[in-house]
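Internal ticket #5521
Category: modeling
Description: The requester needs a full-assembly model to guide mutagenesis choices. All entity lines are attached below as received. Residue total reported by intake: 686.
Assigned to: D.W.
Attached entities:
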Amino acid sequence: MGLPKGILITFLVVPFAIMLHQAAIGTAESAAKPKDFPFRVFDEKTDQAAFRFEGVSSIDQGALQLTPDTLNQAFLLPNRSGRIMYYRAYRLWLSDNDDDDVVASFNSTFLLNIYRNKEWNAGEGFAFLIASDINIPEQSHGQWLGLTNASTDGNATNHIVAIEFDTEKQDFDPDDNHIGLNINSVHSSKNVSLKPLGIEISPEIATNYSVWVEYDGRSKVMEVYMAKHSRANPPNKPNTPLLSETINLRYYLKKESFFGFAASTGSPAIQLNCVLEWDLKVEELHPRKDWTWLKIAAGVGVPTMALLVILGFWLGIRYVNKRKITRVEESNVLGTLKRLPGMPREFKYKELKEATNNFHESMRLGQGGFGIVYRGTLHDKDHEDTKTSTEIAVKKFSRDNIKGKDDFLAELTIIHRLRHKHLVRLVGWCYEKGKLLLVYDFMPNGSVDKHLYETSSQNTLNWKHRCKILAGVASALHYLQNEYDQKVVHRDLKASNILLDSDFNARLGDFGLARALDQERNSYAELEQAGVPGTMGYVAPECFHTGKATPESDVFGFGAVVLEIVCGRSPGIKILHEHHQYSLVDWVWMMHREGRIEEAMDKRLNDDYVFDEANQLLLLGLACSHPIASERPQTQAICQIIAGTTPAPSVPPFKPVFMWPSMGAAYSSTESTVSNVILSSITVSY
Ligand SMILES: *[C@@H]1O[C@H](CO)[C@@H](O)[C@H](O)[C@H]1NC(C)=O
Ligand SMILES: *[C@@H]1O[C@H](CO)[C@@H](O)[C@H](O)[C@H]1NC(C)=O
Ligand SMILES: *[C@@H]1O[C@H](CO)[C@@H](O)[C@H](O)[C@H]1NC(C)=O
Ligand SMILES: *[C@@H]1O[C@H](CO)[C@@H](O)[C@H](O)[C@H]1NC(C)=O
Ligand SMILES: *[C@@H]1O[C@H](CO)[C@@H](O)[C@H](O)[C@H]1NC(C)=O
Ligand SMILES: *[C@@H]1O[C@H](CO)[C@@H](O)[C@H](O)[C@H]1NC(C)=O
């Protein structure tokens, strides 16, 4: 008699649980459903959400660009790597301990264009990639193809299988024009030279290739076909594959894996790595009918099941009620955050509370306009025996309700994608009960201003440290303005926003939240009226007129930072000199005019610095402080001047006069329109 009742109850409980589950998924996904295959063109605006971008990759000119696509800024091309993966993972087999050996079949068809200029020596290569993890390893440029690096190559924990299209010969390659099957390594387990087959992957005359990668999950055969493509007469799949190899993906990949592409350039070997179209079909595996559930349900008996039903309904009602209140706000936020490329870790509020000793006053690192930053320690519970712990900085936003949530999320998505060794890394986030917290790498040496102003003269920053900090900030600025696929304007460059790691490497802090959090507060006019200390002196004169930050106004802010770090004086504090008050820039300019620029040096250095370097930096600082935006040097030149490979520009004896409106295209020396520029801002310093 137990049997029929058991079945009945199972039917009651299971659908109910499924219903709740679907409700939860439904709300998170509805925010903006990424586009599905096929992609006949890639749209810069609407297709961002469908992919995860790693390294220097982007969507540009209707194509996936694994490495930068630029012909007139060739210096951006060498030594790059990138990955672009479709946003969702696919299930490749059903269960790890299933005797049934079936793997999902798939077909991936794409249009490939590997371009090289006649003067270029093509390299390094491109790959179609299946990986358990979308993250690109550091230093994966050159021979590593964005797949591995010198330390990870060959390691089974990579869990990658790729088809490489290699255009540069390494010692372990047959030639510089081959495809290969790569398993966890750039050393192919099977290679096929294409020259005898009349195919050149990166010919001097730009050529599009149709590529078919097909996998049969029953026979475990992987095949690659390739044919020259012409729009007028699209090719059919050739009869014979170029490469055909038996490989059981279960041995190398993980059950849930991502599909996408990777590529790299070297030096001097460079090429553009573009995917113009992509279609992917992955077989959906269905579990065999499984009656175990029913058997268990029947066996457990009526009383337990009745209790479960009651519990289920009670929990369900609570859950539904709770969701009603917070669903509207949270679904959007969570949905977007969870889809961030590279998936920063989601923390529980409780975890961060514990890490910061209940946000204890003694853990406080600093305060900014929008929240307080605490120091914290995460104890890694997974490795109880090793007792590893990680230092973090937790920013707790003071406002419970974030204004302009969509803007905020849009910016956060971008911030998260910025990867540079001189930008502070976003480790994770927490959004619970309307409270927002962001988690960053902890910077043990605090901010630059503390070192300049709060330490005794004995242990102030030495000259080497100061030069290293400026070089770091310049390279971060160059990355934001030129190397990232969208221009990012920092907007609030100042010493308190430059943090130092244990080796005194500079890192710019967290980005982009000010505008979305509080629009009104960002008006430069108000800053001017209020004479906000610590910001005055860093803001370019034209900003007070336009209210807009630009790449050039960031260069102005950088100039102020250079003078500040070299002179050890805050740009916001006037200097009294022979009964006159001078701003830092005006004072240094006067010293320059009078031929005694060394008197501007920080006295605490005790003459322990290299005069030529200091002189170049001060001139650079003045050049960046030019009142006319278009006259300021560009970041590329700034990096070269700091590296000592280019001399500083000549600086006139008198500071030029600021004119408004300025003549011609003073604002953007670059082609980007203002709407293309993302205004970001560091708001909270440690
Ligand atoms: C490219 O990287 C290699 C090592 O990976 C290095 O030797 C070379 O100097 C780099 N070239 C450029 C132009 O950065
Ligand atoms: C892949 O294409 C082959 C034909 O070339 C077809 O038989 C197979 O069903 C396709 N597989 C998937 C998963 O679409
Ligand atoms: C390889 O990549 C890993 C992961 O990004 C990184 O930890 C490691 O330092 C890299 N190794 C080299 C030699 O760059
Ligand atoms: C492979 O990688 C894992 C984790 O990334 C590491 O623990 C292990 O030492 C590596 N193995 C080798 C042989 O390098
Ligand atoms: C490339 O493949 C050929 C034929 O399969 C093989 O003989 C050769 O050793 C391979 N070359 C390398 C460098 O792996
Ligand atoms: C390659 O394809 C792109 C996009 O469809 C097209 O604009 C371009 O003209 C093609 N190039 C060649 C050489 O066929």
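Resolution: model delivered.
Comment from assignee: Residues 105-107, 214, 281, 283 surround 2-acetamido-2-deoxy-beta-D-glucopyranose (ligand 2) (CB under 6 Å).
Ticket closed.
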